[in-house]
Amino acid sequence: MIVxxxxxxxxxxxxxxxxxxLARLKERxxxxxxxxxxxxxxxxxxxxxxxxxxxxMKSFLMPYSSYTASGxxxxxxxxxxxxxxxxxxxxxxxxxxxxxKGSFVYNLAYEYTSYQRTKSMGSVFSVGSGTxxxxxxxxxxxxxxxxxxxxDVSLIYDADKTRIVVSGGDTASTDFTASEVGLIAKIxxxxxxxxxxxxxxxxxxxxxxxxxxxTFASGDPIACQYxxxxx
Length: 231
Description:
Layout: E1 4-13, H1 18-27, H2 32-38, E2 39-46, E3 48-49, H3 51-61, E4 64-67, E5 72-75, E6 79-82, E7 88-91, E8 111-114, E9 117-120, E10 124-128, E11 144-157, E12 162-171, E13 176-188, E14 201-216, E15 221-230
Antiparallel strand pairs: 1-2, 1-15, 3-14, 4-5, 6-7, 8-9, 10-11, 10-13, 11-12, 12-15, 13-14
């Protein structure tokens, strides 16, 4: 049986490559060749995709019905997801309204300014020191230490499959031993009739993995990748 799986790859890079690494992050030109050249340690581990992620995928596939009170078209069935802070939210895709309004449901790498307010919607890798075995019911890391911003999301087309590759990096903000990682999407909630500037941005765990520990010293470059595809 073919299944959808996500592979996490975590790198501790040589500090002598730090400036080059940070410059490449800004320009979105982190290559596998560079990572192999700068790498001191590397971990690869398949994660466990969360039920939260499955519910969002279900929303994409559900039929739509008309919501005449405001003119919005919404998915027929709504589900409940749990944000990383433990708060439960009801989700359902909201389509374009008949009066021309629209809504963002989620975005993996997006930042906007509206009504003199800015909300970051960039997804992040959350790196922590937890060791609890991942389960589909996870909604947060066991012991998150640092968020690593996502800087690029790309598609790789093979002959018979497509892979989504999420990449990011940063420098360690403190000394810590990493043993878990998760991919967290920022979800912009949109209630019909409420302007975007007044909506909440929530954090939702997509996938989580644990791995053999890597010790980072403050200032060490951290590179993260997540490859989602058929396995």
